[in-house]
Amino acid sequence: MEGIPSIMRRSSIAAVAAIGSVSLLLAGCSKADDGTGDGKAKAAGADAATKHMVNASTKKGGTVTYAMSDVPDSFDPGNTYYAYMYNFSRLYARPLMTFKPDAGEKGNTLVPDLASAPGKASDGGKTWTYTIRKGLEFQDGTPITSKDVKYAVERSNFARDVLQLGPNYFQQFMQGGDKYKGPYKDKKGKGLDSIETPDDNTIVFHLNQAFQEFDYLVATPQTAPVPQAKDDGIDYVKHIVSSGSYQFQSYQEGKQAVLVRNKNWNPKTDPLRKQYPDKIVVNLKVNQSTIDKDLQAGDTLIDLQGKGVETQTQAQLVNDKSKLASTDNTYGGRLVYMAINTTQKPFDKVECRKAVEYAVDKVSVQTAEGGAIRGDIASTVLPPDITGYKKADTYATPGNKGDVAKAKDQLKACGKKSITTTITARSDRQEEVDAATAIIESLKKVGINASLKQFPSGKYFTDYAGVPAFDKKNNVGLMMMQWGADWPSGYGFLQQILNSKAIGTSGNTNLSYLSNKPIDKLLAQSIAAGDENQRNDLYGQIDQAAMDQAALVPLTYFKILLYRSPYATNLVSTAAFSGQYDYLNIGTTKK
Amino acid sequence: MISYILRRLVAAVILLLVVTAVTFGIFFLLPRLAGQTADQLAQQYIGKSPTPADVAMVKHNLGLDQPVYLQYWHFIKGIVTGAEYNLGPTTAHCDAPCFGYSFKNHVAVWPELTDRIPITLSLAVGAAVIWLVAGVTVGVVSALKPGSFFDRSFMGVALAGVSLPIFFTGQLALLLFTYQWPIFGRTYVPLTTNPAQWANTLFPAWCSLALLYSAIYARLTRSGMLETMNEDFIRTARAKGLPERTVVARHGLRAALTPIITVFGMDLGLLLGGALITERVFSLHGIGEYAVQAINDNDLPPVLGVTLLAAFFVVLCNLLVDLLYAAADPRVRLS
């Protein structure tokens, strides 16, 4: 996704860099009952939840309170695109597959949820068959069948005039997906032919191409069953029918959602969910600084968005060792980078692009972004918490501070003494503007004069940086960008930003306008490869090829700083959901 | 009097129509002049990787495939008679006044506005009371003793008040009185839930906003009063032997109030349309915040809703101002 903080998937990492000189960590799980009498657990140490489960407890009861500074795009599992909603919705909407609740990269492991086993591929990865568990019921006691899953996929991917907020991968990959207009316009009521339900427990997906990571696609909330009889489109969000361990007791648009135990959820059909708290409350539109304070006071247990504390709180936490021991500083599955427009002269020549690669002082960019706590210096396209990452540094410079001599050499090889260009950034993202300003300074030292143009993030891709005609007209050679994958694999991360097929007349996310046949071929090969190791190897090759092409300058691997509530149990910061805590089994010790 | 109000109301409706027409024009026509097509516009409301069929569906659903004048007509009609809306499997009726649904997330605009009006109203009216009382009092006292220590020091403070931006004074108030010494609450509580907490939470916001305005009002009142107090009728009043208090309050202030009422009507009306910066600083989810969000999202129905609401408040306040004129100044007759 296009780098809106916390939009879709990304992750954290196992080997999370420690914050400063912090000494940390208790080995193994720390028990929730170790703390004071009021249920407050002792701090488990900085970054503890990125390595193992913190405050492990099977204690039942109580209320787990979430808060959010804004409102989610939607609670409707078929109409959301945010990682935190993918994470949270699993409490009331069970997808075919999901991620194992575990710390760091271990959390990237796919496990069956509504399905009883991972998908069976046939026809070279073009057909995927899932068997759903027996004995499943909706909250009202009606049985869940494969038809409810098929319907959920159809409404969420094909009725885009009504439910357009989620991604549309099924529309892109299902046979005949481009022609089907969705269940609301489907007068015959047969649905999409390429999704078959031969019996109540089997669902078969026929794809238009081999897609070996299909298990990731069915791990989205879009495959969580929706009973057609209860679906009223946009308004379904007001009375979602639960298939998970909790169901909605009340929902007030833009204010609050309250969930209680779903009595028709059967633990025997669910090896993942534990149903610990009695109640889950989500308070919306709470001031972020209030959330941060409430987290520390224990009034709120989880910041739903999971994008980390705000800057002021960060300063307080980092400067207080006792508070730092209750934080998790982790990768957010996201790369902060600067795309180089490979179609804009003189950056159509690789040497000119390489000059930029060598010229950028990444330390100054990291400082502008908020320091090491907000990101490690990056040298690859894939962040370390995405499956397929391989360590490399093609354009290494001393201390990552840029190499003026090498940059000038490249500029000479490109046949230029100086370059005048435009760099774009999103005006409502101060850190991005600051980073661009730092880059301008370092480019100036080698003779590249870039002037900054700022645009609102809402139209950055549709009207400005993502429109080739606009870039050409305005001599845009460099574009600030952030990217997180829709699912935590190399393909999920790379295909939208390096694939020439992703280039259109507007709304581009391949901001480098990279049209490189070998890379396109590698991408196609990788997703058709049945062997996971082979795929991961190919992702490493694509990354390297993109860097050899100097299509973009990796700046930082984005990190978040989470505050870990002493009252919350079973906390793991998972790479599968942008470093957020896994929301499936969080309980409370609060009395 | 009644016919005067009626005439003003008719004029107000026409004005509101013009405002919406202009907003419509800015939204649709300006980008079109810059080369934007209806397809590009529709693409903003679909999400990722839309197919041409998706674009066509969204265009149709949002009515973007119709000529602009027809879209405008449907919008106006919706306000008066309500509108039909495609919810998916069914079509829903959106009751009048139907301001439409957000292009971005299909949430109805009118309930969003009615949810937020009390917050903006609380902020604006609370601040207005403070700035009016403080501003006018300081202005009157300063005018009565021009050049005195009180006059000089308060006019100095007033100057600072006008100069300091709200994002500075607001943040400072928050830092000192909400975080450093937590005297005031952090999260807005509706008046109906708990009046004491409502006032407690809003007080720093009121004061920050009032500081800015009371400065202007103090200066306005001062100059008005200085002028009025030199008028012949004041001398006559004094000559009649009226006590000074009556001269100042009944004769002086009453005449000096006219320009203040005018400005007050405009200011309050504008604020009711959303005090963007104050709402942002104090995390109040009012009309201003909604407007900013809608503009960022290029989401026409909420933008139109807010514009219309703001214009309505300005018109309403101006009408009240005109009525108040008659009450404040006996020389004014409404006809």
TrEMBL record, chain A:
Q: Which SUPFAM superfamilies match?
A: Periplasmic binding protein-like II
- The superkingdom listed in its UniProt entry is Bacteria
Query: What InterPro entries does its record include?
Result: Peptide/Ni-bd, SBP_5, SBP_5_dom
- Entries under Pfam families matching the protein: SBP_bac_5
GO molecular function terms listed in the Swiss-Prot or TrEMBL record: peptide transmembrane transporter activity
Any one GO CC term of this protein is: periplasmic space
Q: Which GO terms describe its biological process?
A: peptide transport
The UniProt keyword set, sorted, is: Signal
Residues in the signal sequence = 1-32
Gene3D superfamilies documented for this protein: Dipeptide-binding Protein, Domain 3, Periplasmic binding protein-like II
Solute-binding protein family domain sequence ranges: 109-502
The molecule here is called ABC transporter substrate-binding protein
> Which species?
Streptomyces antnestii
What are the top taxonomic ranks of the organism? Bacteria, Bacillati, Actinomycetota, Actinomycetes, Kitasatosporales
Automatic annotation (TrEMBL), chain B:
Which InterPro entries does this chain map to?
Answer: BPD_transp_1_N, MetI-like, MetI-like_sf
Pfam families (UniProt xref): BPD_transp_1, BPD_transp_1_N
Concerning CDD domains, the annotation shows: TM_PBP2
Provide a GO CC annotation, any one: plasma membrane
SUPFAM superfamilies on file: MetI-like
TM spans (from-to): 9-30, 119-144, 156-181, 201-220, 255-277, 303-325
Tell me the superkingdom of the source: Bacteria
**What is its subcellular localisation?**
Cell membrane
Biological-process GO terms, alphabetical: transmembrane transport
Its protein name is ABC transporter permease
Taxonomy of origin reads: Bacteria, Bacillati, Actinomycetota, Actinomycetes, Kitasatosporales
